[in-house]
């Protein structure tokens, strides 16, 4: 928690406080903003609350013609204009809670000089101190009932709070006149108050006499108001792990994205090839078995069924011999049949083929004989760089 005054040359009070244990961890005072860098390290990984002097922030209740809504928020500066002594464009207006004053709708607002507030925020940003909340200091004094005034001494000032939405910071030199004009019914003070004039009965909270910022820190949970809103809203803090690993994660994300795009493109190409092959298979099936209904997802079973049917007919010998011939292609390279002739009576298949050498025909003959077929090799002739010849396969009659 850091409390600043009107000028950058005024002392700055600070406190490191554990809200869980309600214990003071460290505290101190800087002579001016020139020493603000001393707080940079203390602010690391901590929630920093900035307290602005109540002398620089005015709290007002603005009467409304109807219940608070977004349209009234846009008209709010014009409603305030007649109650201000300066140009409303020079002010920053922070909105608090809608309220009822009797039967009158109103809204709580805090008003401060826009440029002055902006300079303070920029100064803390320059020292890498992230401010999560900004609150007028006296607004964190304990709230008292009725017309009772809360007071605590801070430096050369008294911070005062009257009711829910009335605060001030008074100098000791003229504070008496202010208190006489305010006429509270009672004064509850959290610091020794010998110098406070007897304008009302006093109640000393001696058990709570402590550092002023410690008392204010204990009241943070009782207030939700934050001056960091609108144009001055705090940016969402990025986790430290993200700041440390952001570059690497971004690069990894790009690499993964590229990998997905490449694989996606390959998948599309492979799917297109699969579709082309399926179309070719369907066309071949329709050509081989005209008039048959094609079911692409059952095409393999349809072909197996048709072949099984043929094996029990007069075409069974032809299919058996061609099946043996097809098996050759997995074992012999550069062997290309040109014509096939089948003699059903003799159950003989004549293959005219070409190869890149005489030895290829010898390999084919040897493989087919190993499969239990009767094989006869006809004449072989050179035709340029290839050899053309004939092989006869004979099955059981």
TrEMBL record:
<dbReference type="InterPro" id="IPR043129">
    <property type="entry name" value="ATPase_NBD"/>
</dbReference>
<comment type="function">
    <text>Inner membrane component of the type II secretion system required for the energy-dependent secretion of extracellular factors such as proteases and toxins from the periplasm.</text>
</comment>
<keyword id="KW-0813">Transport</keyword>
<keyword id="KW-1133">Transmembrane helix</keyword>
<dbReference type="GO" id="GO:0009276">
    <property type="term" value="C:Gram-negative-bacterium-type cell wall"/>
</dbReference>
<dbReference type="InterPro" id="IPR025691">
    <property type="entry name" value="GspL_pp_dom"/>
</dbReference>
<dbReference type="InterPro" id="IPR024230">
    <property type="entry name" value="GspL_cyto_dom"/>
</dbReference>
<dbReference type="GO" id="GO:0015627">
    <property type="term" value="C:type II protein secretion system complex"/>
</dbReference>
<dbReference type="InterPro" id="IPR007812">
    <property type="entry name" value="T2SS_protein-GspL"/>
</dbReference>
<dbReference type="Pfam" id="PF05134">
    <property type="entry name" value="T2SSL"/>
</dbReference>
<comment type="similarity">
    <text>Belongs to the GSP L family.</text>
</comment>
<keyword id="KW-0653">Protein transport</keyword>
<feature type="domain" description="GspL cytoplasmic actin-ATPase-like">
    <location>
        <begin position="2"/>
        <end position="235"/>
    </location>
</feature>
<feature type="domain" description="GspL periplasmic">
    <location>
        <begin position="242"/>
        <end position="394"/>
    </location>
</feature>
<keyword id="KW-1003">Cell membrane</keyword>
<keyword id="KW-0812">Transmembrane</keyword>
<dbReference type="Pfam" id="PF12693">
    <property type="entry name" value="GspL_C"/>
</dbReference>
<keyword id="KW-0997">Cell inner membrane</keyword>
<protein>
    <recommendedName>
        <fullName>Type II secretion system protein L</fullName>
    </recommendedName>
</protein>
<keyword id="KW-0472">Membrane</keyword>
<dbReference type="GO" id="GO:0015628">
    <property type="term" value="P:protein secretion by the type II secretion system"/>
</dbReference>
<dbReference type="GO" id="GO:0005886">
    <property type="term" value="C:plasma membrane"/>
</dbReference>
């Amino acid at each position: 928690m850091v409390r600043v005054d009107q000028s950058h040359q005024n002392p700055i009070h600070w406190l490191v406080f554990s809200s869980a244990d309600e214990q003071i961890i460290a505290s101190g005072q800087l002579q001016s903003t020139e020493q603000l860098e001393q707080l940079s390290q203390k602010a690391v990984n901590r929630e920093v609350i900035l307290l602005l002097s109540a002398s620089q922030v005015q709290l007002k209740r603005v009467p409304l013609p109807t219940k608070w809504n977004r349209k009234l928020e846009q008209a709010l500066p014009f409603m305030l204009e007649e109650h201000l002594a300066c140009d409303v464009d020079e002010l920053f207006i922070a909105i608090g809670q809608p309220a009822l004053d009797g039967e009158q709708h109103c809204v709580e607002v805090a008003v401060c000089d826009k440029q002055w507030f902006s300079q303070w925020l920029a100064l803390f940003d320059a020292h890498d101190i992230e401010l999560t909340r900004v609150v007028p200091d006296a607004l964190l004094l304990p709230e008292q009932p009725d017309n009772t005034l809360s007071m605590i001494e801070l430096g050369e000032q008294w911070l005062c709070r009257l009711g829910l939405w009335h605060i001030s910071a008074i100098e000791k030199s003229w504070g008496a006149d202010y208190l006489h004009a305010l006429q509270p019914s009672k004064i509850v003070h959290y610091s020794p108050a010998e110098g406070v004039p007897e304008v009302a009965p006093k109640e000393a909270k001696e058990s709570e006499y402590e550092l002023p910022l410690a008392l204010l820190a204990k009241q943070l949970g009782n207030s939700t108001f934050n001056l960091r809103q609108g144009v001055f809203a705090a940016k969402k803090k990025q986790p430290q792990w993200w700041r440390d690993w952001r570059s690497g994660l971004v690069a990894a994300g790009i690499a993964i994205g590229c990998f997905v795009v490449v694989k996606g493109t390959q998948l599309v190409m492979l799917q297109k090839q699969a579709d082309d092959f399926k179309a070719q298979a369907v066309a071949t099936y329709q050509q081989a078995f005209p008039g048959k209904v094609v079911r692409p997802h059952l095409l393999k079973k349809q072909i197996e069924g048709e072949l099984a049917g043929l094996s029990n007919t007069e075409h069974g010998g032809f299919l058996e011999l061609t099946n043996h011939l097809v098996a050759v292609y997995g074992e012999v390279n550069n062997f290309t049949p040109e014509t096939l002739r089948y003699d059903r009576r003799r159950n003989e298949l004549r293959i005219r083929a070409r190869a890149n050498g005489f030895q290829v025909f010898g390999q084919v003959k040897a493989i087919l004989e190993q499969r239990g077929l009767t094989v006869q090799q006809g004449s072989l002739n050179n035709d340029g760089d290839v050899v053309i010849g004939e092989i006869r396969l004979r099955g059981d009659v």
